[in-house]
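Inputs:
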Amino acid sequence: MFTRQLMALVVCMAFTPLTMLSGCNAAPKVNDAEVSLKLRSIQTRSYDTTNANNALRVAMATLQDLGFVIDNADADLGTVTATKLDNAATKMTITVRARGKTQILVRANAQYKLLAVDDPIFYQQFFTAYSKSMFLEAHEVDAAAPGL
Amino acid sequence: MMAHLSFFKHLVSVGLFFSIVGLTNCASNTVPPDALLMKEPTTEIRQRQARRYATTDEKQVIIAASQLLQDLGFNVENSAKDLGLLVVSKDRSAVDGGQVAGQIAVAVILGVRMSVDKEQKIRASVVTCPSADRKAIDVRVTFQRLVWDDQGQLSKLERLDDPEMYRDFYIKLSKALFLEAQEVG
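Outputs:
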């Protein structure tokens, strides 16, 4: 009887890594156009300003407020990348680009450990803090709209 | 027959237990909802990390900060003059005498080897920005570190929050700039 219990334990332990892998290993959704559009919409806001340099500086200040250390920034390309270390690493990139003649588009994307962040609440929190520092209201963006 | 039934019951219950363990492990890999929230008010953190200097020469402030950080043993990783950014890092030993003594004690008592911190990378970013009235430059520095143990595994990822460290940094920066720093609210 004891041998059978031991066998059962060994069999289950052998299957545990498979259970863990099958549960965690989500298939990438990069090629799914609909998901991609939805994600872009979650990650993007437009602002009524054309001052991209200020938008990038505010992005850096907001990221510092949120506990990030800036890794890199490029005014010409309109990018800022930063990392927050709080037991785990959260990496975030902000890009700023012109939209028409009166607006800019700000897009944020993040990864937590080895996971891409697609939770709308996470981005909502970022844009709430960012909009306060910008002294401007964020506009939600239709991902299917031309120019996005 | 009864023995077989009992065996399968046992198999199912143990399997269920390990499946739950597996699922729990997955749950811990999801993004926590408060990943972007700070544990203390951002104004307090900002006061600790930022100062204002009565100058309009942003470039001079960045150069002074880079000189100071080089004095402190940091290497410049990145910079962006147009955005007032300077990113620096340094690699140092993270060996702690107390931790090593603890490792030896555990090895002697329990006969098992505990990992101890070995190396650390300290990173900092300095961001400068003209104040709203354009009469001063705001400077904000943030420090963080990654620690690896003697088995090459990351053992700590943390923000460095010691107020003394930030105070020291600005005392030295003020001396380098020949300017008095003002707190930023």
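Remarks. The first helix of chain A runs from residue 2 to 24. Helices of chain A lie at 2-24, 33-43, 52-65, 120-134.
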